[in-house]
Amino acid sequence: MRKLIIANWKLNPLTLASAQQLAASVGSSKHEVVICPPSAFLAQIKVPILGAQDCFWKLKGPFTGETSPAQLKDLGVRYCIIGHSERRALGETDDMVAAKLQALLEQGITPVLCVGFGTTVGEDKLDVTEALRPQLDSALRDTDPKKVVVAYEPVWAIGTGKPATSEHAEQIALFIKTKYGIEKVLYGGSVNGVNAQEFLSQNHIDGLLVGSNSLIPDEFNKIITS
Ligand code: 13P
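# 1,3-dihydroxyacetonephosphate complex -> structure
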């Protein structure tokens, strides 16, 4: 089945030449593969589907350092990650994430809403859903959930080499779909070429959000051919 696999390069690599080389190393896949390079390189990366890692909630004006969803649209960006735990850790609030989500929808860019920050309790299903609820309630208020992709990224699984179990990710994906009417839920957190297949074979996991291993061509190509 065709799934959605998103590469989040985060603040890597350091030069445009390396970024272009990395983009060129992405092989073909039966899945929909989206590459999210750092914003500085967005205009010069050639990939079939381009994504962004963040945006601002206003289109233009006196907002030094920000990136407008309208500018992303002009560059051909089709997906934009918002609410990543690494941004929430820098002070981004649920209200900011909600405003970004609306601004993206107005530009016709699909928001990839990350939830999971604050979840320190490993795989206790009840505690996890309680932690996710305020993030989802706030961002999805007055929104057509069918236009939003949600990525469940338990913070304890990000960059640790300790992924959630596929059963846990599947339970949370089902919760997000049934409670919020979301149609596409991705899993992210220590996905690699070996465990990707296990996540992708779950009924309610519609794809993956990949960090570290999207920077390693062999590993990423294994993931997208899973
Ligand atoms: P890792 O794949 O490095 O755990 O990162 C996941 C992530 O944060 C993707 O957005």
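# post-check
Helices lie at 16-24, 69-74, 85-88, 94-106, 125-140, 166-180, 196-200, 217-224.
Residues 4-224 form a domain with the TIM Barrel fold (CATH 3.20.20.70).
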